[in-house]
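This entry is passed on directly below:
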Amino acid sequence: MTTERPYVLITGVSTGIGFDATRYLIERGYHVLGSVRKAADAERMQKEFPSHFTPLLFDVTDGAAIATAVEQVGKLVGKRGLAALVNNSGISGTAPLMHVPMADVRQMFDVNVFGLLQVTQAFLPLLGAVKNCPHDPGRVINISSISGGLVFPFVGTYGATKHAVEALTDGLRRELSIFGIEVIGIEPGNIKTPIWEKGSAADTRFAQTAYAEHMEKIPDLIAEMGRKGDPVETVSRAIHKAISASRPKTRYPLTFLWRLSRLLGDRALDRLTKPAMGIK
């Protein structure tokens, strides 16, 4: 391992966006520290990337494991610090807001929002949020979603968490400017990743509700969105730009729907989003 490579930490690298971003950044001269939740995934990732990759074993909701990872990373990067933290870990799910179990809501917020902030707080000193920092300030890149600006039916809980991520991105960017730390949001649309290939059965928890017919169609609708999605490298390129640009944008929207959502009124957006999820 060459010590000249900048260090980038990415959460949730075992599959999908995190996995491809790891590949993309290693190929472009970075050393990636990637978090996984299972030892087996750490071993697999180390085999996939035998050079310039260090697995970190922690869940973004586990404060003690995060603290251990901070100590491990601090010893590795030394006075060079982290060039960037990419908050990629997250979970999704579909349910009508009228019936979604509150335990599901809390879990999604715990991972997508509280976990993101907990990891960011823990690693900020290694990104330069300290007095007399010996290295250039790093950057925080938050992987948000089109759902952070435009909420489709049955993904309201997920959309709420991504709206929160957008708010955290703005707040952190403005507050961390005193350290010179840039905070950047990336908003993908539908992205082709292996998760779409796994498929899923209809959620039978809502079979006795007025949304039963709609929920039966959700797996096929989501699978079709995935098949038509953009290549995962679209996100990897945006992550690289956010890290490497001398003056990065505050946001990198990766779908025209993000811009459209800023132009159309609520009623027009209702007419756009409802049919997409099977509501007439």
In short: The beta strands are 7-10, 31-36, 53-57, 84-87, 139-143, 182-187, 191-192, 230-231, 251-253. The chain is about 50% helix and 15% strand.
